[in-house]
Amino acid sequence: MNRFSFAALGTSALLLQACMFSPGMHMDTDRLLAEDSVEESLVEMVQITPKVLAQEQAVATNRAVPQELLNFVPENYRLGPNDSLFITVWDHPELTIPGGQQQTSSANSRVVRDDGTLFYPFVGSVKVAGLTQEELRKLLSDKLSRYIEQPQVDVNILEYNSQKVTLSGAFVTPGFREINSQPLTLLQAVGEAVIDNERADLSTLNLIRDGQVFTLDYDYLTSHPSAVGSVYLKAGDKLHMGLNDARKVFIMGEVPRPAALSYSTSRMTLSEVLATVGGPSPTSASGREVYVIRGVENLETEKATIFQLNAQSPSAFILADQFEMQPQDVVFVGAAGITRWNRFVSQLFPSANILGTAVNIGNDYNDLSNNN
């Protein structure tokens, strides 16, 4: 065996060892796209095309306000426990201001009891919870007519305490909001509570009503024509503005500044993600290897999806600008061929002495043969 045979042997060993290393930041799309591999793998490769964008956007734009919420039409305010009333019986100050004119209106007010009843002179204890102001006025008039000829009764609400909605989550002033004689809309309640823009996930506003959760994309509904302004709240409703802690997109690979990007709006595109980190590296990135890796909750029942964008295509910028990200997406930019080869060399350099050892063995063998 000559020195070149040993050199060849050493080179073969080097290449064999090289096969054990990953070729830089590269994804083997040929293997993933193979039909047999796809059946067995946990992912599905999808090329980003206008057709795929249309399918994705059809799902993304399905953000209309649920009809069930729009069907609710608020009625006149109905009294409830702890509401404070001021009842006037004209020409009868002893009934109107029993505490005297020197007292404030609140001192002469009458509060609905916890059980929904109200006591009034000559009338006694009556059930008022669930009644409107007009219904209560008529009830008192009818009762007092037994003692007062043609009583003139008026009912005013001083404090609305029985009907409330609760706001929680990413609001500056969360808590309770009272519903009064003026119907309370969803937009009014959110406006009063003030959104905490640094913490809010504007795409996830949950309205909980009668045990059912309605998730609204507040950002989309308020920035596009929608019926969100016609959503009225009713007593017992809960509004929760989601937090953006988990609303992130991760970008790695051949980019100048790999990062985890937080966003609070409902829409961030692939082009915005790439632009934020300085785009694919011009010296090391492969234009064909821009991927969006999208996971699933249960890999046992469904596959994750890897979207691939060929950034070398003239239409790539248009496609990237229309491809909407989802929380927890991972954007991966692969390396160009020469970059992968350079990384092979740098990764395998500590083992390059295999070649030198093989040559030295070849020289020693030849010297020994010649001497013999």
From TrEMBL:
Alphabetical UniProt keywords: Cell outer membrane, Ion transport, Lipoprotein, Membrane, Palmitate, Polysaccharide transport, Porin, Signal, Sugar transport, Transmembrane, Transmembrane beta strand, Transport
Domain SLBB: 163-240, 248-333
Membrane topology according to the record: Multi-pass membrane protein
Outer-membrane lipoprotein Wza C-terminal domain mapped to chain residues: 336-364
Domain spans labelled Polysaccharide export protein N-terminal: 74-157
Location relative to the cell: Cell outer membrane
A Pfam family matched in the record: SLBB_2
Source species, domain of life: Bacteria
Keyword Transport in record: yes
Gene3D superfamilies hit by this protein: Outer membrane lipoprotein wza domain like, wza like domain
Entry's family note: Belongs to the BexD/CtrA/VexA family.
Name under which the protein is recorded: Polysaccharide biosynthesis/export family protein
Native source species: Halopseudomonas sabulinigri
Lineage: Bacteria, Pseudomonadati, Pseudomonadota, Gammaproteobacteria, Pseudomonadales
